[in-house]
């Protein structure tokens, strides 16, 4: 059986995203996401369990997140888990941490009237994919909002055109009643 490392999360940002650059010049932003799970205990008490998750986003996607998102923004993250390891400066011990490498971030907040400043907030139907440099070549427009002015992104399903059965006559354009 094949392995699978895929994560889907919905939550709210715990702080404003900040943009930084790697030594090679690639933009990166580390987002902190809070996700909550509500459940009922055996005793019938309603409880809420909140989990804080670190998410890294890269390139154009990182720039878009920093431009449009702020503390409290609700997002959907699609990505994979990644293990970071380092040596602690104080104790010299080896440390590890699991984080999410964001492959696609969807902004879920709806537009609010009056509080937009500079370019407006994201729409709930806009997704920002990673640019081609960070994903396998697919020939897509990469990095632009889906459904944007350049027409990049997947198209809605359209059934193939119907062809008349063999031997049937196709009506002339003038015979169509609409």
UniProtKB/TrEMBL annotation:
<keyword id="KW-0234">DNA repair</keyword>
<dbReference type="InterPro" id="IPR012340">
    <property type="entry name" value="NA-bd_OB-fold"/>
</dbReference>
<keyword id="KW-0238">DNA-binding</keyword>
<feature type="region of interest" description="Disordered">
    <location>
        <begin position="104"/>
        <end position="178"/>
    </location>
</feature>
<keyword id="KW-0227">DNA damage</keyword>
<dbReference type="InterPro" id="IPR000424">
    <property type="entry name" value="Primosome_PriB/ssb"/>
</dbReference>
<comment type="subunit">
    <text>Homotetramer.</text>
</comment>
<feature type="short sequence motif" description="Important for interaction with partner proteins">
    <location>
        <begin position="173"/>
        <end position="178"/>
    </location>
</feature>
<dbReference type="GO" id="GO:0006260">
    <property type="term" value="P:DNA replication"/>
</dbReference>
<feature type="compositionally biased region" description="Gly residues">
    <location>
        <begin position="138"/>
        <end position="151"/>
    </location>
</feature>
<dbReference type="Pfam" id="PF00436">
    <property type="entry name" value="SSB"/>
</dbReference>
<dbReference type="GO" id="GO:0003697">
    <property type="term" value="F:single-stranded DNA binding"/>
</dbReference>
<feature type="compositionally biased region" description="Basic and acidic residues">
    <location>
        <begin position="104"/>
        <end position="115"/>
    </location>
</feature>
<keyword id="KW-0235">DNA replication</keyword>
<dbReference type="GO" id="GO:0006310">
    <property type="term" value="P:DNA recombination"/>
</dbReference>
<dbReference type="InterPro" id="IPR011344">
    <property type="entry name" value="ssDNA-bd"/>
</dbReference>
<comment type="function">
    <text>Plays an important role in DNA replication, recombination and repair. Binds to ssDNA and to an array of partner proteins to recruit them to their sites of action during DNA metabolism.</text>
</comment>
<keyword id="KW-0233">DNA recombination</keyword>
<protein>
    <recommendedName>
        <fullName>Single-stranded DNA-binding protein</fullName>
    </recommendedName>
</protein>
<dbReference type="GO" id="GO:0006281">
    <property type="term" value="P:DNA repair"/>
</dbReference>
<dbReference type="GO" id="GO:0009295">
    <property type="term" value="C:nucleoid"/>
</dbReference>
């Amino acid at each position: 059986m094949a392995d699978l490392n895929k994560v889907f999360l919905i939550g709210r940002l715990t702080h404003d995203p900040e943009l930084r650059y790697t030594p090679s010049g690639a933009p990166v932003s580390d987002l902190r996401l809070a996700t909550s799970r509500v459940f009922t205990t055996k005793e019938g008490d309603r409880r809420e369990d909140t989990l804080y998750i670190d998410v890294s986003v890269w390139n154009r996607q990182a720039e878009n997140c920093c431009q449009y998102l702020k503390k409290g923004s609700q997002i959907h993250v699609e990505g994979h888990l990644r293990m970071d390891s380092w040596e602690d400066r104080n104790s010299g011990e080896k440390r590890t941490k699991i984080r999410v490498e964001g492959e696609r971030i969807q902004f879920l907040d709806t537009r609010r009237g009056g509080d937009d400043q500079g370019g407006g907030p994201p729409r709930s139907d806009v997704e920002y994919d990673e640019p081609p440099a960070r994903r396998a070549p697919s020939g897509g427009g990469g990095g632009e909002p889906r459904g944007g002015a350049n027409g990049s992104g997947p198209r809605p399903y359209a059934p193939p055109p119907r062809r008349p059965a063999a031997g049937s006559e196709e009506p002339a354009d003038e015979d169509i009643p609409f």
